[in-house]
């Protein structure tokens, strides 16, 4: 990097630091609030990335064995080894419901079709309830990201308005409108705006991304339930 640019960057960073240190108590409260929103939202983003990566990895294994024609007993065994997958919860719920209806046995152990319509309906209901729980789990804390994306720009704007108001009050008290009088208050105001946007933009992007992942997973779970019940009623599990 050019030495001139390095010098300018160092001056800019030092000036920003001084503005934050010398900011009014109200402006500091605004910045602390925005920092809290930003830290928590990034923690949610990182946790959701880890959650969806683990879910995708284990779901691929279960779906591959399901599509290869694995029996219910094998799928139930795999699901116990892949607890991070929503499909594991579905299969565990289906296993519990079938064992309840069959006196502790799985359909696969009898090798017969699960042909009673009312039995399949009960299994489908159990799967739908489990799917709703899994979708709710995937949606957890997304509301906080949405709140961060919608609220923090206005919190930053509040700090901006306060800084501009302070600048004009300083002008009135000093009876002068020079740049030296106005600039510190305006700069303080702009820092609050930047902080608000810095907290809001990642939260909005992450919220939209994760919401798309949840909606896609919800559709996939619905398709899986339909396919599972079709195979169950046809004696293929």
Describe the structure in your own words:
This protein has one domain (about 25-235). It is built from eight helices and no strands. It has helices at about 5-20, 25-65, 70-80, 85-100, 105-110, 115-140, 140-175, 180-235. The protein is rod-shaped, with a radius of gyration of 28 Å.
Rg (C-alpha, Å) = 28 Å
Overall number of domains = 1
The global form is: rod-shaped
Query: How much helical structure, as a percent, in the residues?
Result: over 70%
Distance between the termini: 65 Å
Question: Care to give the gist of this entry?
Answer:
With 237 residues, the protein is mostly helical. Helices cover 86% and strands 0% of the residues.
Task: Annotate the secondary structure layout.
Layout: H1 3-21, H2 25-67, H3 72-81, H4 86-101, H5 107-110, H6 117-139, H7 142-174, H8 179-233
Give descriptors for this structure.
single chain; 237 residues; mainly alpha; 86% helix; rod-shaped
């Amino acid at each position: 990097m050019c030495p001139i640019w390095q010098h300018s960057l160092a001056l800019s960073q030092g000036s920003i630091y001084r503005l934050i240190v010398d900011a009014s108590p109200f402006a500091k409260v605004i910045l602390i609030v925005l920092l809290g929103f930003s830290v928590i939202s990034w923690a949610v983003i990182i946790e959701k990335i880890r959650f969806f990566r683990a879910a995708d990895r284990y779901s691929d294994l279960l779906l591959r064995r399901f599509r290869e024609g694995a029996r219910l007993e094998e799928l139930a065994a795999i699901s116990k080894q892949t607890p991070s997958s929503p499909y594991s919860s579905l299969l565990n719920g289906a296993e519990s419901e079938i064992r309840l209806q069959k006196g502790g046995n799985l359909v696969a152990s009898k090798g017969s079709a699960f042909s009673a319509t009312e039995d399949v309906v009960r299994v489908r209901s159990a799967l739908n309830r489990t799917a709703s729980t899994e979708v709710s789990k995937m949606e957890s804390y997304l509301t906080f990201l949405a709140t961060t994306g919608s609220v923090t720009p206005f919190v930053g704007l509040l700090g901006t308005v306060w800084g501009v108001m302070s600048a004009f009050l300083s002008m009135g008290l000093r009876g002068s409108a020079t740049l030296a009088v106005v600039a510190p208050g305006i700069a303080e105001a702009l820092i609050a705006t930047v902080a608000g946007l810095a907290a809001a933009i990642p939260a909005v992007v992450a919220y939209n991304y994760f919401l798309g992942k949840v909606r896609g997973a919800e559709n996939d779970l619905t398709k899986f339930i339909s396919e599972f019940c079709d195979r169950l009623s046809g004696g293929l599990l």
